[in-house]
Amino acid sequence: MGWVVAAAFAAVTFASGFQTPAMKFGVVDIAKVVENSSYGKETQTMFRQMQASREGLLEFIDTNRVLTTEQAQRLRDLTIKPNPTNEEKAELERIKAEVITANKKWAELSTKAAGLTAEERTLLEDYARRSQAMSEFADRLLKQFTNEIQGWASDQKVKGLERARSSVQEVAKAEGYNVVFEIGIAPFGANDLTDAALKAMDAKK
Description:
Blueprint: E1 13-14, E2 25-28, H1 30-36, H2 38-63, H3 69-80, H4 86-110, H5 118-175, E3 179-182, H6 194-203
Parallel strand pairs: 2-3
Antiparallel strand pairs: 1-3
């Protein structure tokens, strides 16, 4: 899932404030400016981290379906938190360990041919109910995570393109360009401002 689409900038950038007899044209690879900038690299790293953590949680639930609703909700909250404290990290691992232990118990009871006590039979039935509930919970979670990540990526793309446009305009004005085309529109154009725009974007904090 790429979060920068070159076609999103399929227009020309005009540099204002110039009254010159001859028009000066330039080109820029706006997608490259966004992706190779410090902002772009940080955003891509965050995107991969968000995706990996959420996929990891869904995989954990799929492997260990004996979570209680409370455990599942708490794991979700701790997983999506950007900067969890050490205490929260420890809580996350503790809950996972408890779930893994319960899942082993479920497997043990499920393979026990006979001789289940009333307590064990009740526990086995409870695990079965949890498994069904977790299947439904995971389906909802997948939809939530998908919408969440897509929305976040869309917002970052817009912000990145705005920063890139501003940087292109800054460079164009400083170097006397009247019109700057996106490189997809003028692929063989001279006066490539991509590197200069990238430096200008990285200079913005």
